[in-house]
Write a structure and sequence with these properties.
about 675 residues, mainly beta, Immunoglobulin-like, six-stranded antiparallel beta sheet, about 10% helix
């Protein structure tokens, strides 16, 4: 069953109130009603085809229809009694069946002027809801000023006398022409001015061709109330025209787009310093390399250094003209064209501006352009250059970009056998193991590159796997051949991250490399031990009273191998046998002692003092097995390592064996104190 519905919308502003039974029709192609209109204007473009008329709200009086009953809508033109279109709805229907559309035949639109549109609703069979509230439409085919030519545009006296000059534009930045009012002036009439260069060719004298409009005004209520009608020829427009005399004229166009003939003309002289023609887009030489701007470009040491654009020669520019470059819509320092200006002009793009579009986090395309202006003229815009930009990295974004070292990346650690970040001959012939913690948010396929030495060479790589997570230990290896090829001393190592576009590097780790073997070191000596005839010859024994201050071990002086600042590391191990065989080692006596030499010690020697307990005491108490008379005693083996302070290098002395006993003949107790 039909419902008595109403959307509450008014089809047009200022439309007469619609009766409750049937609202006014709506013409979608009509222009909105203005305050000085009584009819809806139909544009010229809509007058050349069938005109649609819509009923957009349900009418009253349709309650109680049974399914299948018909409702007929008849559409009428002016006061005609025969409808130009009829539409039928079958119950039940509601607002979802709207709009109901009638079609005005195009032939009826050939008669200009005001016309009436209405419709009636008939419940078939039976009642008629009555005619709708009618609307007026205006088939406007007449241009403003009744199609007559307008009077000539009037320029200020100084422009009429001297034309448009540089001085005039410097003072006014425009030339304003006044247009006379026309009798049938209406809201939203348009005035469009153009300039035709003189002298006209013979073919154009009879009829001046329509030029592109360069000044434009739309009539408002202020104009209707008496405000002057102005055509503003801006400085930018005037400078785009060559110097010479021009016919200035205008055309009048109404809301329906009816255009009148050109107005009468007035002569306008343009006498300006020539200005540039078409500006050219900037160029980025870096794009020729890989088609994008990346961190490598930003780190380019130059000259000119970093990312820069070229402003190509602005033909027609003059000294004093101002160029303002832009990158990513951010202004860069102004450039003033000088005498004998060298081209192209190089403009650096600082890193903050380069990264302003968020290109450190995702790749994108930046816009680069510049403006040209002379004096107070309106700036002219160059064509844009669209610049692919990618500053992304694998790992955290460095706060010090574009510097290649990112302090947020962890340092690597070189795991030497004798200590972290220390490689010695103990590591010989084995690749050095290097570890580092993986950065946050790793992405599979990103590459880590271990660099070694200075100048740095690629030592090893690691490709991030899908299962890798932040904090995982990444392991690199440095081949021994590469370590051997590196000069001794302090060697720098770091790793780089690579995402396929940009690299950044971790802070460097200093590695001490002492792998140059030093040969010919003198054996260590025991200056307190005698080696002549006698029962105690070659022994650390009771006559030396070792419990009183221990035993001296001497590193012999050798100024050909030892130098000030060198480190000597003495190794001591005591044994429960006579020959220092490993099977008899006393674990608690395995010890090293370190000392840094002075120059005098390097020349004259240095004495380590090894204390009595446990190094002498424990091996000194070794006795012969029960029932045997063969001598038994303990021993110690000593040697030292030299680590050079400069230039790297390390060497080991030959070991020295010394016998140790604290056993006395007979049943006397061992000598362990005074």
């Amino acid at each position: 069953m039909a419902k008595n519905l109403s959307s509450g919308k008014k089809p047009y502003k200022n439309a007469p109130p619609a009766p409750k039974m049937a609202v006014a029709p709506v013409v979608p192609a009509a222009l909105p009603l203005l305050s000085d209109e009584v009819a809806y204007t139909i544009p010229r473009s809509a007058q050349a085809a069938v005109l649609l008329v819509e009923v957009q709200e349900l009418w009253g009086g349709g309650d109680g229809l049974d399914p299948g009953e018909k409702t007929q809508l008849d559409f009428y033109w002016d006061n005609e009694t025969t409808p130009f279109d009829t539409q039928t709805l079958t119950a039940p229907y509601d607002a979802s069946d709207l709009p109901v559309v009638g079609r005005v035949p195009q032939i009826k639109l050939n008669a200009p002027g005001l016309h009436l549109l209405r419709y009636t609703v008939t419940l078939v069979p039976g009642d008629t809801a009555g005619p709708s509230n009618p609307i007026l439409i205006n088939l406007d085919t007449e241009p403003p000023n009744q199609g007559n030519r307008g009077e000539a545009v009037e320029f200020p006296p100084e422009v009429q006398a001297d034309g448009v000059t540089d001085a005039y534009l410097a003072a006014h930045n425009k030339a304003v022409g006044l247009v006379d009012r026309w009798p049938d002036m209406r809201l939203e009439d348009e005035v469009s001015g153009d300039l035709i260069l003189l002298p006209l060719s013979r073919g154009k004298r009879k009829r001046q061709m329509r030029a592109e409009g360069v000044a434009h005004t739309v009539i408002t209520q202020a104009h209707l109330d008496g405000a002057p009608i102005e055509l503003v020829f801006t400085a930018d427009v005037l400078r785009q025209h060559a110097n010479g005399e021009y016919n200035a004229r205008y055309f009048l166009t109404d809301r329906a787009k009816n255009e009148g003939p050109p107005s009468r003309t007035s002569v306008l002289l343009i006498d300006l310093t020539p200005t540039p023609g078409a500006l050219r887009a900037v160029e980025f030489p870096q794009l020729a390399i890989d088609g994008r701007i990346d961190l490598e470009d930003a780190r380019d040491p130059g000259p000119p250094g970093g990312v820069y654009m070229h402003i190509l020669e602005v033909v027609g520019s003059a000294p004093g003209d101002i160029l303002e470059p832009f990158f990513n819509l951010l202004p860069l320092p102004l450039v003033q064209i000088g005498m004998g200006q060298a081209w192209p002009i190089i403009v650096r793009v600082d890193y903050a501006t380069l990264a302003s579009g968020g290109y450190e986090f995702s790749a994108g395309v930046a816009r680069a352009h510049y403006t040209w202006r002379r004096g107070t003229d309106t700036p002219r815009l160059s064509p844009p250059r669209f610049v692919p930009t990618d500053l992304t990295v694998a790992g955290p974004v460095s706060p010090d970009n574009p510097h290649p070292v990112n302090a947020l990346l962890s340092r690597v650690t070189v795991k030497g056998r004798d200590g972290d970040n220390l490689l010695t001959i103990s590591d010989r012939d084995q690749p050095a193991r290097v570890i580092v913690s993986l950065y946050a948010d790793p992405v599979a396929g990103q590459l880590l590159e271990l660099m070694w030495g200075e100048p740095a060479v690629l030592a090893d790589t690691y490709t991030v796997r899908p299962e890798d997570r932040e904090g995982d230990e990444i392991v690199f290896f440095v081949a021994w051949a590469l370590i051997e090829s590196t000069p001794g001393g302090i060697v720098r190592t770091y790793y780089r991250t690579f995402n396929g576009v940009n690299r950044q590097q971790s802070p460097a780790t200093d590695v001490t490399v002492n792998i140059m073997p030093i040969v010919g070191l003198l054996r260590p000596e025991f200056p307190d031990v005698t080696y002549g005839p006698g029962a105690d010859a070659g022994f650390i024994s009771c006559p030396l009273r070792p419990w009183d201050g221990g035993v001296r071990v001497r590193i012999p002086g050798d100024d050909s191998r030892l130098s000030a600042g060198d480190e000597v590391v003495l190794s001591w191990a005591s044994y429960r046998n006579t020959n220092g065989h490993p099977s008899g080692v006393i674990p608690e006596t395995i010890q090293t002692f370190s000392h840094t030499l002075t120059q005098q010690e390097a020349e004259d020697g240095y004495d380590f003092r090894v204390r009595f307990d446990p190094y002498i005491l424990l091996p000194g108490l070794v006795k012969p097995p029960s029932g045997q008379t063969n001598p038994r005693h303990g021993s110690a083996v000593v040697k030292y390592r030299l680590i050079k302070s400069a230039g790297g290098g390390m060497g080991d002395s030959a070991p020295e064996l010394v016998a140790i006993t604290l056993i006395r003949p007979g049943d006397l107790p061992p000598c362990v104190s005074d």
